[in-house]
Amino acid sequence: MSQDSSVSSLSTVKCQCGIATRIFTAFTQTNAGRRFYKCSKPNGYKCDYWKWVDYPLHSRVANLIHNLKKENDNLHREKKCLETRMADLEKYLASKIEENCERLDEITVPKSEEVVVDNEDVVVDKSKKKVYKIWIVIAMLWCCFAAFWVMK
Ligand SMILES: [Zn+2]
Question: Which residue range or ranges hold the GRF-type domain (predicted)?
């Protein structure tokens, strides 16, 4: 796509080659927004057929369309530039995150193993204490039952 025109669709108008022409839109200063027919063959193979589709636009309207097109092109260029910068930043951040994760793994792996071992010990200790308490309660109940039985 050139900057002075853009291609839209095939038309029913035929060129000197006998094939359907394409409709282009001009974006030059004097004819911005004005459509024209042109041969649809690739450059180097096209004939010289060329004809306006639209009547000439008012110069103020053509100038406005031309300026809007320029502004739109600039915004597209800026967007592409920002997308490239963003992609570079994402790559940079991904590499930094990976680097820091590797460092974090080096730092925390030994400690986390100790913690797991400690946690297992604590869990084992807690479960042993629970069983111990249950046995004490059973023994006390048995003593109460026995005492109650003897007093009777
Ligand atoms: Zn042609």
Answer: 15-56
The H or E element spanning position 26 is: strand 20-26
Distances (CA, A) of 23 to 9, 26, 49, 71: 6, 10, 12, 23
The Å distance, Cα 42 to ligand 1 centre, comes to 9
The sheet with strand 5-14 has its strands ordered as 5-14, 20-26, 35-38, 50-52
pLDDT at 118: 59
Map out the domains of the chain as residue ranges.
Answer: 1-57, 60-152
What's the pLDDT score for residue 2?
A: 45
Distance CA 115, CA 56 (A): 81
Ligand 1 center to 22 CA (angstroms): 10
Average pLDDT over residues 93-112: 80
Q: Give ion ligand 1 contacts, CB < 5 A.
A: 15, 17, 39, 47
CA of 116 to the centre of ligand 1 (A): 78
